[in-house]
């Protein structure tokens, strides 16, 4: 396990070894012999499991720029693209395959995986596997089971932020024998292979600024410190509001959150990376896997839930080793907001049961049925119709998801689908424009079954082949749809809910003490630690962070606002 701070070089911990490693022989992967490819690099594929699509795309691009074959699988790709990627991984001397943990739930993918020449398994953002971590994701629990298919393949887990308790749990989870859901007593005596780098960032100045009017303080700081900046807020609406306000006041800015389209995300991210926009105002959906070395400021307008989250987000400043600032804006209203957060994140058990029953009724799932069925689930519409508060409802759904009743994905992109409604004879009689004809001919040549069922089409691929822009393609598709030649289902983001168990009678819907009270206690402790960081002015903030993550060298940093003030006094 590698425990390294943000910007500490986690990716090279698996990329460099994988380049030198040959495939391990397994019972299924009969082709995975230890040979050397024509590039001179030993054959063998590194499987990288990460929840971050932005990181996948970024690292694949960088690897390919260096002549290293790498691929990524993520939501929105067609079945053909997935199959071609896996073929390249099996037969094409590919070195890296990036996948999301949810991909491991697919039986088809698991079957294909057995035939890949895996030489190393890398688990990024490994804190997500721990139920006691600040960002637990149930899909991560499936990772340990794939070790049964690759018993001799080494595994490396990587994270930038984990307390000693979480570090221990990560290793216990990934070291479990396949099918064993309990950690046996002998794991206490297991030799834990942890490689830890200090969390100290001597070039990063930690500042907490009291601010009654936070926007004015934000503008003052941005005027005082030059260079790129990230401004974090807690909700999507505020990202646009503050971005617009900064632009109106002479500071170039854009906004980013999980609800915008992937195309818009990529465009805004690239503009910020290139320096065309100085400030990115974002929720915590932005920044993971983004490597921009010259960020001089990371400003938090709202108190994060945990010191782990704060440390990761603040650590995106100053990756070039030059002086940078991590600023938290705080005022008296934040105390009240903290208490409300606890109530919103852990609603009463009776309310959780009420949500479970309301969801089943809304989706018309009968008692004793529904397992493995997926449903588009517009949570805001659901809450409006059922007169439920949005934040406690969302938290209830997450708690039920972690307890195994269903899997709830807040934002999942559904790809563009097209169905040709005319017969070939009718198509020949239609008066189409030149561009419409080119589009129809390309669809006919490349998508089988398009007359009988809507097929997934890749807009980027169509734009490239037809040499048109995305907006022009959408207008073409809309025009063909209006003329009843095709059915066009645009790409969109939709929340999805998948029942993992049949719908249960309400008396059987229970959350254990570990699933509720223990999680609530840990959340409250983390929030209080974050509150202490923000409110105290006696101790070095760097020391507080180091102690929280298990470092206790006791040396003040001389680069946080507390240490600077003490030195001046």
Looking at this protein, list some descriptive labels.
569 residues, alpha/beta, 7-stranded parallel β-sheet, 6-stranded parallel β-sheet
Task: Explain what the structure shows.
It is a single chain. The chain is built from 20 helices and 19 strands. By secondary structure, the chain is α/β, with parallel strands linked by helices. The longest helix has 22 residues, at 514-535. It is globular, with a radius of gyration of 25 Å. Residues 25-34 and 177-190 have low confidence and may be disordered.
By oligomeric state, this entry counts as single chain
Q: Order of strands in the sheet with the most strands?
A: 3-4-2-5-6-1-7
Tell me the span between the first and last alpha carbons. Answer: 42 Å
Average predicted local confidence, pLDDT: 85
What structural class do you assign from the helix and strand content? alpha/beta
Unreliable runs, pLDDT <50, ≥5 residues? 25-34, 177-190
- Characterize the main sheet: 7 strands, parallel
Overall 3D shape: globular
How much of the sequence lies in strands comes to: 15-25%
Q: Give me the count of strands.
A: 19
Global Rg: 25 Å
Proportion in helices: 25-40%
How many helices? The count is: 20
């Amino acid at each position: 396990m590698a425990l390294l701070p943000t910007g500490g070089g986690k990716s090279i911990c698996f990329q460099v070894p994988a380049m030198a490693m040959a495939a391990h022989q397994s019972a299924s992967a009969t082709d995975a012999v230890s040979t050397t490819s024509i590039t001179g690099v030993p054959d063998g594929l590194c499987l990288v499991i990460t929840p971050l699509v932005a990181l996948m795309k970024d690292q694949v691009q960088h690897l390919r720029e260096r002549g290293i074959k790498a691929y990524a699988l993520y939501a929105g790709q067609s079945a053909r693209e997935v199959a071609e990627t896996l073929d390249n991984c099996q037969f094409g001397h590919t070195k890296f395959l990036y996948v999301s943990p949810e991909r491991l739930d697919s039986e088809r993918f698991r079957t294909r995986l057995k035939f890949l020449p895996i030489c190393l398994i890398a688990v990024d953002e490994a804190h997500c596997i721990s139920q006691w971590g600040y960002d637990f994701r149930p899909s991560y629990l499936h990772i340990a089971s794939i070790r049964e298919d690759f018993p001799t393949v080494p595994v490396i887990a990587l994270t930038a932020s984990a307390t000693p308790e979480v570090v221990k749990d990560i290793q216990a989870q990934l070291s479990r024998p396949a099918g064993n859901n309990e950690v046996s007593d002998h794991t206490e005596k297991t030799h834990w292979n942890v490689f830890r780098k200090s969390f100290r960032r001597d070039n990063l100045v930690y500042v907490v600024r009291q601010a009654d009017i936070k926007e004015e303080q934000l503008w003052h700081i941005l005027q005082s410190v030059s260079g790129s900046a990230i401004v974090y807020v807690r909700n999507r609406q505020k990202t646009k509001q503050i971005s617009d306000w900064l632009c109106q006041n002479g500071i170039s800015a854009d906004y980013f959150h999980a609800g915008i389209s992937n195309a818009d995300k990529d465009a805004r991210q690239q503009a910020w990376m290139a320096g065309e926009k100085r400030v990115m105002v974002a929720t915590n959906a932005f920044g993971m896997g983004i490597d921009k070395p010259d960020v001089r400021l990371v400003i938090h307008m709202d108190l994060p839930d945990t010191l782990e989250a704060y440390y990761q987000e603040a650590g995106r400043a100053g990756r070039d080793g030059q002086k940078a600032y991590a600023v938290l804006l705080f005022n008296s209203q934040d105390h009240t907001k903290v208490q409300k957060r606890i109530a919103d994140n852990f609603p009463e058990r009776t309310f959780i049961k009420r949500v479970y029953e309301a969801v089943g009724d809304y989706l018309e799932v009968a008692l004793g049925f529904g397992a493995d069925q997926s449903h588009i689930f517009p949570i805001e519409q659901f809450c409006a119709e059922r007169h439920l508060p949005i934040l406690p409802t969302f938290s209830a759904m997450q708690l039920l998801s972690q307890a195994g009743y269903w899997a709830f994905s807040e934002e999942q992109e559904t790809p563009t689908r097209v169905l040709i409604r005319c017969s070939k004879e009718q198509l020949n009689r239609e008066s189409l424009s030149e561009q419409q004809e080119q589009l129809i001919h390309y669809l006919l040549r490349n998508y089988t079954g398009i007359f009988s069922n809507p097929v997934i089409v890749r807009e980027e691929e169509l734009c490239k082949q037809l040499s048109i822009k995305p907006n022009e393609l959408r207008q073409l598709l809309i025009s063909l749809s209006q003329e009843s030649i095709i059915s066009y289902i645009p790409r969109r983001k939709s929340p999805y809910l998948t029942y993992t168990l049949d719908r249960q009678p309400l008396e059987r819907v229970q959350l254990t003490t570990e699933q509720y009270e223990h999680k609530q206690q840990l959340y409250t402790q983390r929030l209080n630690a974050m509150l202490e960081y923000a409110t105290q002015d006696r101790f070095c903030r760097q020391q507080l962070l180091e102690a929280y993550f298990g470092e206790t060298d006791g040396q003040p940093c001389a680069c946080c606002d507390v240490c600077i003030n003490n030195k001046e006094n």
